[in-house]
Amino acid sequence: MKITGIRAYQVDLPLHDGSYKWSGGNSVSVFDSTVVAVETDEGVTGWGEVCPLGPAYLPAYARGARAGIAELAPQLLGADPLALGELNELMDRAMRGHPYVKSAIDMACWDLLGKASGLPVATLMGGHVGADFALYRAISQESPAQMAKKIGQYRKEGYHKFQLKVGGDPDTDIDRIKAAAAVLSRGDVLIADANTGWTQHAAMRVADAVRDVDVYIEQPCMTYEQCLAVRRHTNRPFVLDEVVDGIDMVVRGVADQAMDVINLKISKVGGLTKARQIRDLCVSLGIAMTIEDTWGGDIITAAISHLAHSTPERLLFSATDFNSYVTVAFAAGAPQRKKGRLAASMEPGLGVRPIMKVLGKPVIDIQLKAKRK
Ligand code: MG
């Protein structure tokens, strides 16, 4: 099989809740997502998606994803999309860094691999574990009372894991954590995710104030070293997210005992191929994972579902169903949350069928024929 064309589509994804707010006063109300189609000489098309959490979250932004795809795509024409190891080598040689640019292309090639073999991506990644898996709900940064109230609302939708967006004023954050913990039911799990927003001394104060609260602390500070200092100070279970941007950081974190859980985002590490390498390493080392992405719609939710559903249950801390956060559906067959849980499709590939009237005209269209002119 050969890649004969790469197209990209731009999709706006507004939120049911109006906006999503996290540390540093950051917020997004409409997500800018990019859907990628990898076309082949056998007439089969693979689909991928990339959706940065705005430009201020990671070194990634939506127009950068599209500029990067337009830059990279001509160099991938003629390559075998099923040789995923070689394809990733080719992408890494052609463009240094920019993992999020490569993510949707790699994801689309996994979709092709599944379609070519007649197997769901989850089967190719180790097989569906059980019938489904549990999701967490992110709780946008609001007042302590409003965030506690949201826990009750989301529990009614079936969620039992709640990730509070903190990383603001430390006194208010302590109130947020305590207010949320006060409304938990037995079996609920609470995570306080600062998204790099605390200074080290503020993080130390919050960590001390919640020593007796049943809460996980996620990515308190900007750097790995600052997070490690907080980790060594706190008695709470600890999650690293933003600084874990590749397999080398997982190895380093394990050597330092810097975390109990990592947050594995597909586009942060460069696609499903690299996310699966990290997933398998974490399984071998006993590190639990939240498996998700920076944001997205139906295709990213499908990709998350295949990686998460093929992960041993004891090490799958949680996962996310972004397509239930946004108001626009653009692919049939995408997994839909039921009682706070999600299941990967049993159809070949990612199991999604894009709705072309929603996607509209491609904003990037690079074809092998055009290249030969
Ligand atoms: Mg996080």
Derived structural class: alpha/beta
Q: How many domain units?
A: 2
Whole-angstrom Rg: 20 Å
**Helix share, percent:** 25-40%
Give the ligands present. magnesium ion
CATH architecture label of the largest domain? Alpha-Beta Barrel
Binned strand content: 15-25%
Features of this protein?
single chain; 373 residues; alpha/beta; Enolase-like, domain 1; TIM Barrel; 2 domains; eight-stranded parallel sheet; four-stranded antiparallel sheet; 22% strand; globular; binds magnesium ion
What can you see in these coordinates?
The chain is α/β, with parallel strands linked by helices and 373 residues long. The chain has two domains: 3-119 and 355-371, Enolase-like, domain 1; 123-353, Alpha-Beta Barrel (TIM Barrel), CATH 3.20.20.120. It contains 14 helices and 18 strands. The strands form five sheets. The protein has an eight-stranded parallel sheet. A four-stranded antiparallel sheet has the order 5-4-1-18. The protein has a two-stranded antiparallel ribbon with strand order 2-3. The radius of gyration is 20 Å and the shape is globular. Magnesium ion binds at residues 193, 195, 218-219, 241, 263.
Structure, briefly:
The chain has 373 residues and is α/β, with parallel strands linked by helices. The protein has helices at 62-72, 84-94, 99-117, 121-124, 144-156, 170-182, 200-209, 224-233, 247-255, 266-269, 272-285, 298-309, 356-359, 368-372; strands spanning 3-14, 20-22, 26-28, 30-40, 45-50, 133-134, 136-139, 161-165, 189-193, 216-218, 238-240, 261-265, 288-292, 316-319, 331-332, 341-342, 353-354, 364-367. It has 14 helices and 18 strands.
